[in-house]
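Structure tokens
________________
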Amino acid sequence: MRILLAEDEQDLNQIIAQKLTSDGYSVDCCFDGEEAINYLGCADYDALILDIMMPKKDGFEVLRILRQSKKTTPVLFLTAKDAIEDRVKGLDSGANDYLVKPFAFAELSARLRAMTRNNFGMVTNTITIADLTLDTASHIVKRGNIDITLSAKEYALLEYLMHNAGIVLSREKIENHIWNFDYEGGTNVVDVYISYLRKKIDDGYSNKLIHTIRGSGYVLREGT
């Protein structure tokens, strides 16, 4: 999934981004509120991690502008402000969750999963399509009883396809969702990674799950 991280402490920003990337997220980073608003206007994100005390525009102003634009992107406030009134203000202003610094990365990851799970209408961390299962907490993927080993990007692509099972996704939509603004790869990157996934997910099975819709893109579903 694609995450926007707005945190003005550069060292912390870098550490969080590295951790999220290693967990399979695509991460765009910014360091002040105006940058965050610009990023939000250029891409759709699955979640926003938002510091409150930032230069130019604080987190409350960023959130106000986001909600005024009718975007429902889940927002996690990440802040040193730990007073009850600060938490109440953050949640009442439209944030989905609130995490106080210092924090454990395991808790940050769990809160992100909970927010995105709710956004997709899921009640558990497990997504199942036919005999294919994906656990968003452990990143364990299985087809039947067979474990499937995926790279971080393969996992991210499969998770995106499974969250949108039955929906045809264009190459552009997939690329914009799985790769961040820093990506400088080839123009056929989506086709390449779909090929990788097919070899691991569909090869040897009569019931193919990943389908090409000519002129439109790709869809994950049961049957032809």
Notes: The mean pLDDT is 88. Residues 47 and 193 are 23 Å apart (CA to CA). The chain has eight helices and eleven strands. Residues 2-119 form a domain with the Rossmann fold fold (CATH 3.40.50.2300).
